[in-house]
Automatic annotation (TrEMBL):
This is SnoaL-like domain-containing protein. InterPro entries: NTF2-like_dom_sf (IPR032710), SnoaL-like (IPR037401). It comes from Microlunatus spumicola. It holds the Pfam family SnoaL_2. Residues 24-112 form the SnoaL-like domain. Signal peptide: none annotated.
Protein backbone atom coordinates (compact mmCIF):
# COMPACT_ATOMS: atom_id res chain seq x y z
CA UNK A 1 0.00 0.00 0.00
CA UNK A 2 1.32 3.43 -0.93
CA UNK A 3 1.61 6.07 1.79
CA UNK A 4 -0.73 9.06 1.42
CA UNK A 5 0.80 12.08 -0.30
CA UNK A 6 1.03 15.52 1.30
CA UNK A 7 -1.60 16.70 -1.21
CA UNK A 8 -4.04 13.95 -0.18
CA UNK A 9 -3.42 14.55 3.53
CA UNK A 10 -3.93 18.31 3.17
CA UNK A 11 -7.20 17.64 1.36
CA UNK A 12 -8.44 15.33 4.11
CA UNK A 13 -7.24 17.74 6.77
CA UNK A 14 -9.38 20.56 5.38
CA UNK A 15 -12.50 18.59 4.48
CA UNK A 16 -12.61 15.93 7.19
CA UNK A 17 -10.95 17.74 10.12
CA UNK A 18 -11.21 21.54 9.92
CA UNK A 19 -14.61 21.45 8.17
CA UNK A 20 -16.04 18.61 10.30
CA UNK A 21 -18.45 19.85 12.97
CA UNK A 22 -18.87 16.44 14.64
CA UNK A 23 -16.13 16.00 17.28
CA UNK A 24 -16.17 12.18 17.14
CA UNK A 25 -15.82 11.99 13.35
CA UNK A 26 -13.13 14.71 13.48
CA UNK A 27 -11.17 12.78 16.15
CA UNK A 28 -11.26 9.60 14.07
CA UNK A 29 -9.78 11.37 11.06
CA UNK A 30 -7.20 13.19 13.21
CA UNK A 31 -5.99 9.74 14.33
CA UNK A 32 -5.63 8.65 10.69
CA UNK A 33 -4.11 11.82 9.22
CA UNK A 34 -1.84 13.15 11.99
CA UNK A 35 1.13 11.62 13.78
CA UNK A 36 0.57 10.94 17.47
CA UNK A 37 3.10 13.64 18.42
CA UNK A 38 2.06 16.15 15.75
CA UNK A 39 3.20 19.73 16.29
CA UNK A 40 0.76 22.44 15.17
CA UNK A 41 2.01 26.02 15.03
CA UNK A 42 -0.14 29.04 14.26
CA UNK A 43 0.20 32.72 15.22
CA UNK A 44 -1.60 32.10 18.52
CA UNK A 45 0.05 28.96 19.86
CA UNK A 46 2.15 25.87 19.45
CA UNK A 47 0.46 22.62 20.46
CA UNK A 48 1.84 19.10 20.52
CA UNK A 49 -0.07 15.85 20.19
CA UNK A 50 -3.40 14.81 18.72
CA UNK A 51 -5.44 15.65 21.84
CA UNK A 52 -4.05 19.20 21.95
CA UNK A 53 -4.58 19.56 18.20
CA UNK A 54 -8.21 18.47 18.52
CA UNK A 55 -8.75 21.01 21.32
CA UNK A 56 -7.18 23.77 19.20
CA UNK A 57 -9.39 22.88 16.23
CA UNK A 58 -12.51 22.81 18.41
CA UNK A 59 -11.61 26.29 19.65
CA UNK A 60 -11.09 27.56 16.11
CA UNK A 61 -14.40 26.14 14.92
CA UNK A 62 -16.22 27.76 17.85
CA UNK A 63 -14.98 31.19 16.72
CA UNK A 64 -16.79 30.97 13.38
CA UNK A 65 -19.74 28.60 13.58
CA UNK A 66 -20.96 27.70 10.12
CA UNK A 67 -17.82 29.00 8.42
CA UNK A 68 -15.95 26.68 6.08
CA UNK A 69 -12.38 26.40 4.90
CA UNK A 70 -11.82 26.18 1.16
CA UNK A 71 -8.69 25.92 -0.97
CA UNK A 72 -7.61 29.27 -2.41
CA UNK A 73 -4.96 28.04 -4.79
CA UNK A 74 -3.07 24.99 -5.95
CA UNK A 75 -1.16 22.51 -3.84
CA UNK A 76 2.60 22.97 -3.97
CA UNK A 77 5.09 20.53 -2.60
CA UNK A 78 8.24 18.53 -2.83
CA UNK A 79 9.01 15.25 -1.11
CA UNK A 80 7.28 15.14 2.27
CA UNK A 81 6.53 18.88 2.31
CA UNK A 82 3.37 20.46 1.01
CA UNK A 83 1.42 23.69 1.16
CA UNK A 84 -1.94 25.05 0.09
CA UNK A 85 -3.51 28.49 0.54
CA UNK A 86 -7.00 28.63 2.02
CA UNK A 87 -9.89 30.94 2.82
CA UNK A 88 -12.36 30.85 5.69
CA UNK A 89 -15.86 32.26 5.57
CA UNK A 90 -19.54 31.53 5.23
CA UNK A 91 -20.42 29.02 2.48
CA UNK A 92 -20.69 30.94 -0.78
CA UNK A 93 -19.77 34.22 0.93
CA UNK A 94 -16.74 36.44 1.14
CA UNK A 95 -13.85 35.13 3.22
CA UNK A 96 -13.19 36.65 6.63
CA UNK A 97 -9.71 35.14 6.89
CA UNK A 98 -7.11 33.65 4.57
CA UNK A 99 -3.78 31.97 4.98
CA UNK A 100 -1.43 29.18 4.06
CA UNK A 101 -1.01 25.73 5.58
CA UNK A 102 2.34 23.99 5.33
CA UNK A 103 2.74 20.34 6.31
CA UNK A 104 5.60 17.96 6.82
CA UNK A 105 4.61 14.34 6.27
CA UNK A 106 6.54 11.55 7.98
CA UNK A 107 5.62 7.87 7.63
CA UNK A 108 2.35 8.69 5.87
CA UNK A 109 1.00 11.12 8.48
CA UNK A 110 1.24 14.86 9.06
CA UNK A 111 3.99 15.31 11.66
CA UNK A 112 4.08 19.11 11.59
CA UNK A 113 1.53 21.70 10.53
CA UNK A 114 2.23 25.40 10.25
CA UNK A 115 -0.59 27.87 9.62
CA UNK A 116 0.32 31.35 8.43
CA UNK A 117 -2.32 34.05 8.18
CA UNK A 118 -2.55 36.65 5.43
CA UNK A 119 -2.37 40.28 6.46
Amino acid sequence: MTAPTPAALLGRMVEEVFNEPDAERRAAVVAEVFAEDVVFTDPGAVVTGRVALEAAITGLLAQGPGFVFSPAGPFRGVGGLGSRPWRLGPPGGDPVLAGLDVVEVVDGRIARLWTMLDG
